[in-house]
Amino acid sequence: MKKTSVSVCFVLMLFGLNSLAQNVIYKDPKQPVSARTKDLIKRMTLDEKVGQLLCPLGWEMYERKGGIVTVSQKFKDIVAQKHIGMLWATYRADPWTQKTIANGLNPELAAKAGNALQRYVIENTRLGIPVFLAEEAPHGHMAIGTTVFPTGIGQASTWNPMLLEKMGGIVAKEIRVQGAHISYGPVLDLSRDPRWSRVEEGYGEDPVLTGNLAAAIVKGTGAGKLSNPHATIATLKHFVAYGIPESGHNGSAASLGERELREYFLPSFKAAIDAGAKSIMAAYNSIDGIPCSSNKFLLTNILRNEWGFGGFTVSDLGSIEGIKGSHRVAKDNKQAAILAAQAGLDADLGGNAFVNLIEAVKAGEVNENIIDTAVYRVLALKFEMGLFEKPYVDVKKAKQEVKTPDNIATARQVARESIVLLENKKEILPLTKNIKVAVVGPNADNVYNMLGDYTAPQRDGDVITVLNGIKANLTNDQVTYVKGCAIRDTTDLSIKEAVTAAEKADVVVAVVGGSSARDFKTEYIATGAAVASKENKSDMESGEGFDRSNLDLLGKQMDLLKELKKTGKPLIVIYIQGRPLNMNWASENADALLCAWYPGQEGGAAIADVLFGAYNPGGRMPVSVPRNVGQLPVHYNRKSPLDHSYVEEVATPLYAFGYGKSYSTFDYKDLKVVKGVDNKSFMVSFSVANTGKYEGDEVVQLYLRNQFASVSQPVKQLKKFERVHLKVGESKTIEFKLTESDLSIINTEMRKVFEPTSLFTILIGGNSSDVKLFYRN
């Protein structure tokens, strides 16, 4: 009888414990996210709360032995000591991290690593909170074995939101199937100074183009519905005005006023947030003396109060410490952390600054409510994403669903659409296939120079160079390759051999430009930016940290081009570059000139498609190309009055914003404009026809000029655009609606308003300087 009573009691006790566990609100998936989040925060210690805001470097947190991946002792220690809530760049591989194909993680191993990390924190911490894994993803997931797309400036040259939405979905899925959750990108820094090292990462100089493309990418990531198993939290970079540093120096102060900030630099972030972005990274720079990482006006007044942003903000790597070190507005890292937290910065990338908040709270220097608010923003997204219920991923899917044939085909299409045809004299392009071609230049057959910064090591054969692409279209005896010279190294020369090859060929394809290819000899600072120096003879002349004082081709590249020109053979010049370099000589002397930016793993195939007519180029410039650095800034939407010529030369750019040629021609006609009520909107329609010999794409662009307003306005501003595919002889009617928002300005009181007295001119054409149709009210 006693044994029966004991057994019954034991069963009842177990039942009670199970019921208690089921009543823990944060563990109950049937409860609302807000209730689960609040319940969990109530159970957390101060140390645990602050830990959720820390995001240390992730590649140090695993150990790999063959096909087995386990957590490192460093990870165990940091979990025990700091209770971390996130990791950054766990799967990253590059010279800075010292992770290679040999010792890094392919997709299958990455999934194993992610599962091991999650299992450890869930099983070995008091509350079992899963960690967020954040990964770099500006043009594909920066990890071994993933699909590499063109860099941001190339993506922007497509002017194709639908294509980039598809790309965004691919990148997000590749990240999620490997077990990560946050994708760093897109990069929304408007670039007005091509000397700046990171032009390649952004979408050019215009807020409307950037905002539309960024919104499309964010939609593609599924950020608006995080319960989708392939959705990522898109982190927008860098908030804000990071792309206009003084003297072109990366991270330097930005000189601009609030109106310019609201007119040009904030709208693209707002568009991406409206599309679903739930994370924003603060920039390294300062604005009007206030570091962006501790700028309450930006992080709270605008983001939270004006825009109602409900996600979380995160520092750039080490930027909280930079409040003290770079900007010198804090006496130590604790004060820097206090300033950042009080301004509205939620998370610490690097994880070494916000640990000071524990002491600051205990000393009464920071209200714990600030910590609670930040933690709520992070934890709510973990619940929304379903990490507490499904923290692990299927390793087999990671192996099968990354870098699929369909993903590679999309990378090729993005590369195709990104190529800009700048010159095509006497219609030398497209080439026939019964010719001999001399392929020369430092970027003709260099795998890593095709890819740009923030790219992982590549397996042999995964990247198609220009030489590979051309050879795929011709026989071996039709193609001769000579490098000619390097990007920077003036001792690596074979110019004479290149000239000899050119003399024996029917046409010369010279591939020049720049490089953002990191190597294991380059030095890197703690944030991962490269250190530029005269002694460094790598190809790298662009990419984070590699700012330029001029835009000329480096090394002996100009010597190579001039010697090739002397042969008298038709010369096709292709620029593979991360910024708009000096193309004056090529513009005047080349028979054809193409800009391919960094076109990604399929770039060589895409370029060959264009050269041989399998694809009619339709890319358009997302930046104005200067004739000289003395013109800078030379962006198209400058304020009135209009520029006048310099003593030495004209003030116009070499190639205007929106410029790009086609193998076909297009005609615009039948403009109709219908005014809305009180002139607060316009319905604009017109027809575009393909009048050439090839089917192809025209990028239709509508610009607005405000003829009269209470504050000075841009000479013109892009408002609408559409990439249209037309068969030979085909015509399509295009319709754009200009809304009250499109017609509004930032007035003297810094409010966006429609002014009834405004007078507008509508300009329609193929680029910002090519007006085909216009209307004035």
From TrEMBL:
Q: What is this protein called?
A: Beta-glucosidase
- Coiled-coil positions are none
Annotated GO MF terms:
beta-glucosidase activity
Residue ranges constituting the Fibronectin type III-like domain according to the UniProt record = 698-768
Q: Which InterPro entries match?
A: Cellulose_Degrad_GH3, Fn3-like, GH, Glyco_hydro_3_AS, Glyco_hydro_3_C, Glyco_hydro_3_C_sf, Glyco_hydro_3_N, Glyco_hydro_3_N_sf
Q: Which Pfam families match?
A: Fn3-like, Glyco_hydro_3, Glyco_hydro_3_C
Asked if the Swiss-Prot or TrEMBL record annotates the protein with the keyword Hydrolase, the reply is yes
> What residue range is the signal peptide?
1-21
Q: Which family does it belong to?
A: Belongs to the glycosyl hydrolase 3 family.
Q: Which UniProt keywords apply?
A: Glycosidase, Hydrolase, Signal
One of the GO biological process terms: glucan catabolic process
Question: Which branch of life, at top level?
Answer: Bacteria
